Amino acid sequence: MSDSSPQPSSALPSSAPKRWGIGLNVALQILLILAIFFGLNRLSYRYHVRWDLSPQQSYTLSANTTNYLNKLSKDVFIANVFARDAKIFPDVQALLEEYRLNGKGRIKLRSIDPLRDIDRAEALKAETGMALDQNGVVIRAGGRTRFIREEEMVIRDTGTESARPIKAFRGEDAVTSAMINLIEGDGRKFYLIVGKGSRTEAALADALAALGELGRQQNFKLMPLNFAEINGVPEDADGLLFAGIRYDLSEREIAMLKAYWEGKRAGLLVMLDPAGETPRLNAFLGLNGVTPREDRVLFAESTGAGVRKEFSVQAIFDNESPITQPLSTSTIILPGQSQSLDVRFDDEYLQKQNILVHPLIGATDRYWGEKNYLEELPIVDEEDHKQPIYLAASVERGSVADERLRVDSCRMVVVGNSYMLDKKSALAVNRDFVAASLNWIVNREKLSGAPPKLKHSYRIQLNSRQNELIFWITTIAMPGLVLVLGMMIWASRRAA
Predict the structure, then answer these.
(1) Which residues is 79 bridged to in the sheet?
(2) 368, 384 in Cβ contact below 8 A?
(3) Domains identified in the chain and CATH numbers
(4) Does residue 54 carry a pLDDT above 80?
(5) 206 vs 182, 195, 304, 419, CA distance in Å?
(6) What is the pLDDT of residues 218-233, one digit of tens each?
(7) Is the peptide bond before 6 cis (omega within 30 degrees of 0)?
(8) I need a labelling partner for 484 at 20 to 30 A (CA). Which of 241, 304, 416, 465 fits?
(9) Strands 296-303 and 306-310: what pairing?
(10) CA–CA distance, 71 with 264 (Å, rounded to integer)
(11) How far apart are CA 284 and CA 290, in angstroms?
(12) Beta partners for 310?
């Protein structure tokens, strides 16, 4: 009797190959995802675009700085030696990061908190030989080191000496100037003319201190020079400074000045004292297109409280000159007394002599040049000088259109005010103008600086109802919404 029970079918194929295939497919997918992930990150690191969305473009370097960084010839080390709780630490760190990103690999950046990273701070002190006893930025290039103090990177508002709020951040100007000075090497040499009197001894001391500080920052040496003791301007002079002299030059001294100015390369910064008796010096300036006037720039009016006579002049910068273009968004106040300048920038004779004259600072509309400035209530009349009122001008002799050939031109800046560097009344923008003028005189326009970034403070006032609404939204509603969404996801997974 045959066995009719069903024969067992052949064994089912093993599922092991199928599992291995799935595992290999997953592994390949993971490897591909990782390759795409790291590849995209690598591409975004090397080729990326950054946007500065701040209203004042606070995190964008100026064109002068970026152009210079693109042509760096030496490696530069920068250390941000700021305490993390310093008010301008975020601004400094963001600024220096921009330098690193635009430095084409030549800028190395390190951030050191002297209060927390004590060992690294001490090591940096040993390397640089500097005390580093305050917040600042260390820059090393070409075997030379420069420490930029915190106060050099800010402009403070008026107020008490102990608590003056920061009005603007000028870190880019300070860092770029220091970097160029370190790479440039030996500083230029300016001679300050002495022995011709001054308003006061304190005013002369203030001018010397201010110019000495500028020299340290802008990499030039300041030396005193008495015309009465020499027979000619020293050959190593990159420029001569006349800071508010009271007494005129003699005929012999004027001849020395003319011989220097008519040479191949000369530089002059003349800050006139309106009360000075300097007819020969004024005549020399007039021959070059800038004639000081016998007046005082002022504003006067009669008010209910009496006569108001204002000698401090609020003025604006020219926006075309390389000296003042970076400062054109700022206003300047010239303290003390100022005299106006007759600036002949459209004189055909001067143009034939290859002398280019350009106004730099002009008084705002309410000021005029008053000849009878000693009157109790001066009023504008026919003999007074009306707008435009120029307070500073530049003169360039031997200028040519090609910037590469202008290195041998003679340059001069004339200012109808000698109070700009007084310690008690000088503003940071006054210092910036003088620094830019000196750099232009020695053909270093790239050191004229970047405009400061203004710091804005905003106050939001909320009433009790608005404060209560913010509390309920941030403390109850938002966490509650997250909790509800989490419970909904948990419940949907449980149901599946």
Answers:
(1) 110, 138
(2) yes
(3) 54-185 (3.40.30.10), 187-454 (3.40.50.880)
(4) no
(5) 27, 16, 37, 10
(6) 778 888 999 989 988 9
(7) no
(8) 465
(9) antiparallel
(10) 29
(11) 9
(12) 299
